[in-house]
Amino acid sequence: MSMIVRSEKKTGTVAKKEKNNLWVEIDADCEMASKCTGGCAGCSGSGKAKKAMLSTIEPERYQLGQKIEFQHCYMNENLVAFVVFGIPISAAFLTLVVWYIISPQSVETPAAFLSAAGALAGGFLIVNGIDFWFRNRFPSKIISVHSCEIEVSQ
Question: DSSP readout, 118-146?
Answer without folding.
Answer: HHHHHHHHHHHHHHHHHHHHS--EEEEEE
